[in-house]
Amino acid sequence: MQARPRPRPKTVYVYGGNDPHFHSGRASALLASFAASDHVDPDTRVLPLNYIRTRYMPVTVLRYLVENRGGRAGFLFSDAYHNRCLRDAPASVPDGSLVISSAQNVGDVGRTLVRDKGVKLYFYLDATLRQYWGAVVGTKGADHLRRLLESERLSFKEAAGFFVYHEGVAAALRDDYGVPRDKIAVIGRGVTIRPDHIAAVRQEGHQEPRPASDQTLTLMTVGKDAARKGVFKVIEAIDRLPEAERRRIRYVVAGPDRSALPARAFVEPLGFVTGEGRRALLTRMRRADLGVLLSEWEGLPGSVYEFLTLGTPCWMSDLPHTEALRAHPGVVSEPLPIDGARVAERLRAFLHDPAALRDLRQRAESQWDAFTWGPIVQTMSDVMGTSRR
């Protein structure tokens, strides 16, 4: 009996998968993981997000600024931006394809793909815009931000399903947008570091050259928004310590502009690290005594995942919906709201108990393979019907 030919795999497009700098790298890591998986059988392609400097994008930016009276903060979430990014999609995306968007909006063009070409649209989210703007910027009196929320609502309305980082995002989709529970899958996220870089950096070990005292404490925070990541609160807490203890602390900060950080002898600002500098940054993360994230709000703390994957213990605030992460071996939790005096006392304890830090590192290294993409890709494929049978 002649075997029946296998049906052609469905084409899955990952919107934003063209560059690891978009959306904390989750889209590009997801794309690579689909390609590497033995358990899924889609034809996986990219729908690219564009940089502001991309051809014709500056004109789109200027038009947006004029129409929204200088409301630049929301451009990357706007219909104008996503319509420009997806302008070629109606001609290039076959009917019936699947699209996974790491952006909260896909613009009029993306919504038209669903209605006119039978595309199934899925979102993979760390937060909704309502959560993000409410926590970071606020919407009172900002008409252009309200328009962004309306565009998000219209895009969500066209979705076949949602993959989200944690239950907090799922609850927001249900409560704020009326998304049915059965259209939401809580799947977490994997780490966005290249596998070959993970292996090489782990091999290097914890071999940071030390100053005179072997009790020097090296802290490190990674993230562009210094205020939101709690950088200034860490600096304030170190300032509270006596000079002799301050001299034993080094605080490495990667992400914010160097000029945005106060000048302190103990602060080492690395600025925004890109390209070839990324590999060296991972080495610095591996060699830090503690990764630090004393943030008041996060969609999901990606830098903590990266530190733990490299075997570096972490000190993080007790952010909502991160209970499982805070219970992970090698994590120390700091109560919210952040209190400078309490943080200073914790720093003093770290300084005077190097054995506790070594124990934290051993715990982190014991579970450093916990944050892989395999289970996430499998769940997505099962939901979308692209698993290999």
Structure description:
By secondary structure, the protein is α/β, with parallel strands linked by helices. The chain is built from 17 helices and 12 strands. The strands form 2 sheets. Strands 2-1-3-4-5-6 form a 6-stranded parallel β-sheet, sandwiched between helices. It has a 6-stranded parallel β-sheet with strand order 9-8-7-10-11-12, sandwiched between helices. Helix 5 runs parallel beside helix 7. The longest helix is centred in the middle third of the chain and has 15 residues.
Q: What brief labels describe this structure?
A:
389 residues; alpha/beta; Rossmann fold; 6-stranded parallel β-sheet; 12 strands; 14% strand; disordered N terminus; glycosyltransferase activity; Glyco_trans_1; Glycosyltransferase family 4 protein; transferase
Give the SSE map:
Layout lengths: L10 E5 L10 H11 L6 E5 L9 H11 L11 H7 L3 H4 L5 E4 L5 H11 L2 E6 L3 H8 L6 H15 L3 E4 L2 H11 L6 E3 L8 H10 L12 E6 L8 H9 L3 H4 L2 E6 L12 E5 L5 H11 L2 E4 L8 H8 L4 E4 L5 H4 L4 E4 L5 H12 L2 H13 L7 H11 L5
Helix pairs in contact: 3-5, 5-7, 9-12, 10-15
**Which CATH architecture of the largest domain?**
3-Layer(aba) Sandwich
The CATH topology of the largest domain comes to Rossmann fold
CATH superfamily of the largest domain: Glycogen Phosphorylase B
Order of helices and strands: EHEHHHEHEHHEHEHEHHEEHEHEHEHHH
The CATH class of the largest domain: Alpha Beta
Mean pLDDT: 88
* Portion in beta strands: 5-15%
Structural class: alpha/beta
Question: What is the overall silhouette?
Answer: globular
What is the distance, rounded to the nearest whole angstrom, between the alpha carbons of the first and last residues? 20 Å
Question: What is the C-alpha radius of gyration, as a whole number of Å?
Answer: 22 Å
Q: State the major sheet.
A: 6 strands, parallel
> What are the segments in which pLDDT stays under 50 over at least 5 consecutive residues?
1-8, 209-213
Number of helices: 17
Query: How many separate domains make up the residues?
Result: 2
Helix percent reads 40-55%
Q: Which strand order do you get reading across the main beta sheet? A: 2-1-3-4-5-6
- Please report the total strand number as a whole number: 12
Protein name: Glycosyltransferase family 4 protein
GO molecular function, one term: glycosyltransferase activity
Domain Glycosyl transferase family: 212-365
InterPro entries: Glyco_trans_1
